[in-house]
Design a protein that fits this description.
Strand content: 25-35%
Order of helices and strands: EEHEHHEHEHEHEEEEEHEEEEEH
Structural class: alpha/beta
Number of domains: 2
Number of strands: 16
Largest sheet: 6 strands, mixed
Shape: elongated
Distance between the termini: 59 Å
CATH superfamily of the largest domain: Response regulator
Radius of gyration: 21 Å
Strand order of the largest sheet: 1-3-2-4-5-6
CATH architecture of the largest domain: 3-Layer(aba) Sandwich
């Protein structure tokens, strides 16, 4: 364990990389970031677990207080022994897991990182701007704003989308509905749509407890955005939103009863008379 930086306020970060160059590049960015209070380093997964379970007074005190030993773990993926993805799965099983930010030389593992529950995904070499963006996201996870019916950042999730060699992160809370397209799913937001290689059934299973419902073999919708459930001679449909951005989607007969039940139980109220 190496403590390389402590400025008295901010996040406690663990940086894990088996290569000196990769670790040095990351440390260069972290040491200059005022969101970071303390930096710990590890050179492989076993070393990282030793750090997290060490007798370090501050880390032990945080654990006793019901916090994660560190706020953020930056993880290289390609490491000998237990790789970064496998270590990430171990860390997410902690009673209070840290935010995970993967740092890798490859840009084709973002979906796997998403499935592990990553907060962000950086391609080497990291730059100060992207590191700060990742830390800002992690900082929000550590200090969620709570309130009745509010989805906090800690409850939110990000979906990495590849766009011309760039990984864009789409917050789940910004998604209005998801459309099945074969083995892919198209995520629809107010600003546009994004195609990801993940089956709609997997997203349904993952998101059913956080306010999404299957309404049709082709659609999964955010219940909080349903403004009307309408019935016509051709069957039921839902209206998402209001005004110019509103959209109407079909509801299949087999999903109608469950959808009605979910809408009644949902914190969202004020559905239109078509209900």
């Amino acid at each position: 364990m190496v403590s390389t930086h402590d400025n008295g306020a901010g996040l406690i970060v663990l940086a894990v990389d088996d290569e000196d160059r990769g670790l040095d590049e990351l440390l260069y960015c972290l040491r200059r970031n005022n969101r970071v209070r303390r930096i710990l380093t590890a050179f492989d997964s076993a070393d990282a677990l030793r750090v997290l379970r060490s007798n370090d007074a501050e880390l032990r005190e945080r654990s006793r207080a019901g916090l994660s030993p560190v706020d953020v773990v930056f993880l290289d993926i390609a490491m000998p022994g237990l790789d970064g993805m496998e270590l990430g799965k171990v860390l997410t099983a902690f009673r209070v897991p840290p935010a995970l930010i993967f740092v890798t030389g490859f840009d084709n593992q973002s979906l796997e990182a998403f499935n592990v529950g990553a907060t962000d995904y950086l391609v080497k070499p990291p730059n100060a701007e992207r590191v700060d963006e990742a830390l800002r996201r992690a900082e929000r996870l550590r200090r969620p704003e709570s309130g009745p019916g509010t989805v906090t950042p800690a409850e939110d999730e990000v979906i990495p989308v590849e766009l011309a060699g760039t990984t864009k992160l789409i917050p789940r809370s910004s998604i209005r509905y998801v459309e099945a397209q074969g083995d892919y799913a198209r995520l629809h937001t107010v600003d546009g749509s994004h195609l990801v290689r993940i089956p709609l059934s997997q997203l349904e299973e993952r998101w059913s407890e956080v306010g999404f419902a299957r309404i049709h073999r082709s659609y999964l919708v955010s219940l909080s955005l349903v403004s009307e459930l309408q019935m016509s001679s051709s069957g039921y449909s839902v209206r998402l939103g209001n005004g110019e951005t509103a959209i109407e989607l079909p509801v299949s007969r087999r999903h109608t009863r469950e959808l009605k039940d979910r809408l009644v139980r949902s914190p969202k109220r004020g559905l239109g008379p078509g209900r």
